[in-house]
Request: fold
Amino acid sequence: MSTPAKPPAAAPVREVSLTIDGRAVRVPAGTTIWNAARGQGIDIPVLCHSPRLAPVGVCRVCVVDVGERVLAASCLRACEEGMKVTTTTPEIESHRRTLAELLLSDYPDASAREATTGDDLLLDLARRQGVGAIPYPAADGAGPTGAGRGRDDSSRVIAVDHDACILCDRCIRACDDLQHNDVIGRTGKGHAARIAFDLNAPMGTSTCVSCGECASVCPTGALTGKALAGMRVVR
Reply:
C-alpha cells in the first residue's frame, strides 16, 4: 500500500518592518497602514472606511505622513519595508480640521444619528478637531444653492436625510458587497449629487428589503433606523 503524498508546505508569509509614530512594527506584506496602526492601538480617524468594507479612500480623513510629497490615505496605502509613518502632525491635523469644516458647512443643524445612537462620526471628528464656528457658511443654512437636498421618509424602517449625506459610499458598498442587494447608487452632479435607490425611486417603493445594513454602516445622520410603532430606540 503506497504512502499518501504529503501536502506541500505552506509558503512562509513575507513580512515588512516599519515604524508608526516611532514604534517598531512588523506586519504581513500587504497590510494597510490603517490596519497596522489599529493593531498597535493607534487610532486614525476615518469616515468612508469600515473594517468590513474594502477601502476606497474617498474621504481622505485618514491621511498620514510617509515622507513623500503628499499625504497618503492610510486605509489604502500598504506598509512598505523601512517606511516611517507619522499619523499626526500640525499639517495633518489642519487637513482634518478643514475637511470637517467643509463637510459641516451644509450639514443639518441636528443629526438623527447623534440624537438616537450618539455615534455620528462626522460630529465626533469635529469635536476631536475642536471645530466651532464654520468659516464656510451656507446660504440660509441649506447648502451653497440655498436649497437642501431633501429627506425621504417613504421607508417604514429607515429615514433618509440627504443633507446629512457626505457621499462616502459606505451604504452603497454595504448594500452591494455585504448584502448583495444592489439597490443603492448615486444620482445628480455637484451639490445635487446624492444617493439613490434603484432608478432614483423613493426608498420605500424601491427594491430595498429593509435589511438595515446601509443604516448600520452610515457614519452620519443620512441613514438612520426609525423607531418601530410601540417600541423605543435602545441606545
Q: What stands out?
A: The CA atoms of residues 198 and 206 lie 6 Å apart.
